[in-house]
């Protein structure tokens, strides 16, 4: 059986969503990164980078959430397409959306000191991501067209918590419609329920 090592995080949510979409049997192994469990030698033996999520696929421990999504989609046959556009969106998520939304979260929710300049820089870029995705979704249902795909799953979690980051989607009607559609999927609620009621997800 597959094992997902994860916690109440953006990148763990992506993998839960796909495992449930593909109806895969798996065990969820919580690694409490707020209590430092990612530094335990037993976990470091699994992922020397000390990060979640990690997916044990029965043979090896896979790391990097978007790579896990791609491998799992390929092996399960879920939404499989040889589509350079889909790969590009996964890279966009990992290199642009993720890091800048992550910095906005840091400077708004976690930092002990304030840094308005850093916050403004990352918030401007995050707002640019919102605008870009909104325009992209103006003439298609999902990120890669008519079919829900791992590109949607990868981009969903940060947008789902936009309120907590002080980012507004008020001017992003197409993106809001997309977000609502994904939130309404039973699997999305099921995936979020792994984190418990205290979670912002
Ligand atoms: N690029 C990695 C990022 C993984 C990552 O940063 N995980 C965070 C939680 S979302 C983590 O484990 N942080 C623990 C730490 O840095 O000590 C992915 O997409 O899987």
Shape: globular
**Biggest sheet layout:** 4 strands, mixed
Number of domains: 2
- Counting copies of identical and different chains, the oligomeric state is single chain
Overall pLDDT metric: 96
The CATH architecture of the largest domain can be given as Up-down Bundle
Distinct ligand kinds = glutathione
Radius of gyration: 17 Å
* Percent strand: 5-15%
Q: Could you tell me how far the N terminus lies from the C terminus, measured between alpha carbons in angstroms?
A: 26 Å
Give the SSE string.
EHEHEEHHHHHH
Low-confidence spans: none
Give the spatial strand order of the biggest sheet: 2-1-3-4
Structure summary, number of beta strands: 4
Any idea of the CATH class of the largest domain? Mainly Alpha
InterPro entries: Glutathione-S-Trfase_C-like (IPR010987), Glutathione-S-Trfase_C_sf (IPR036282), Glutathione_S-Trfase (IPR040079), Glutathione_S-Trfase_N (IPR004045), GST_C (IPR004046), Thioredoxin-like_sf (IPR036249)
Family: Belongs to the GST superfamily.
Domain GST N-terminal: 1-80
Domain GST C-terminal: 79-201
Keywords:
8 helices, binds glutathione, 2 domains, single chain, Glutaredoxin, Glutathione S-transferase Yfyf (Class Pi), Chain A, domain 2, alpha+beta, 201 residues, globular, 53% helix
Polypeptide structure, described:
The structure is a single chain. This protein is an alpha+beta fold and 201 residues long. It has two domains: 2-79 and 188-195, 3-Layer(aba) Sandwich (Glutaredoxin), CATH 3.40.30.10; 84-186, Up-down Bundle (Glutathione S-transferase Yfyf (Class Pi), Chain A, domain 2), CATH 1.20.1050. The protein is built from eight helices and four strands, in the order E-H-E-H-E-E-H-H-H-H-H-H. The protein has a four-stranded mixed β-sheet with strand order 2-1-3-4, with helices on one face. Strand 3 (54-56) and strand 4 (61-63) form a beta hairpin. The longest helix has 27 residues, at 84-110. The radius of gyration is 17 Å and the shape is globular. 34% of the residues are buried. The structure holds glutathione (GSH). Glutathione (GSH) binds next to helix 1 and helix 3.
């Amino acid at each position: 059986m597959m094992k997902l090592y994860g916690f109440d995080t953006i990148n763990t949510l992506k993998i839960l969503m796909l495992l449930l979409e593909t109806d895969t049997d798996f065990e969820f192994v919580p690694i409490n990164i707020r209590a430092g469990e990612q530094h335990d030698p037993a976990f470091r033996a699994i992922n020397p980078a000390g990060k979640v999520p990690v997916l044990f696929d029965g043979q090896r421990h896979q790391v990097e959430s978007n790579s896990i999504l791609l491998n799992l989609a390929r092996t399960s046959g879920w939404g499989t397409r040889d589509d350079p556009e889909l790969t590009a969106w996964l890279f966009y998520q990992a290199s642009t959306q993720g890091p800048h939304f992550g910095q906005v979260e840091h400077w708004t929710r976690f930092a002990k000191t304030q840094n308005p300049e850093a916050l403004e820089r990352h918030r401007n870029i995050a707002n640019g991501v919102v605008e870009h995705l909104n325009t992209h979704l103006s003439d298609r249902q999902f990120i890669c067209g008519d079919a829900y795909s791992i590109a949607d799953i990868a981009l969903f979690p940060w947008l789902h918590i936009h309120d907590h980051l002080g980012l507004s989607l008020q001017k992003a009607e197409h993106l809001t419609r997309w977000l609502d559609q994904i939130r309404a999927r039973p699997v999305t609620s099921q995936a979020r329920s792994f984190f418990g009621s205290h979670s912002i997800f």
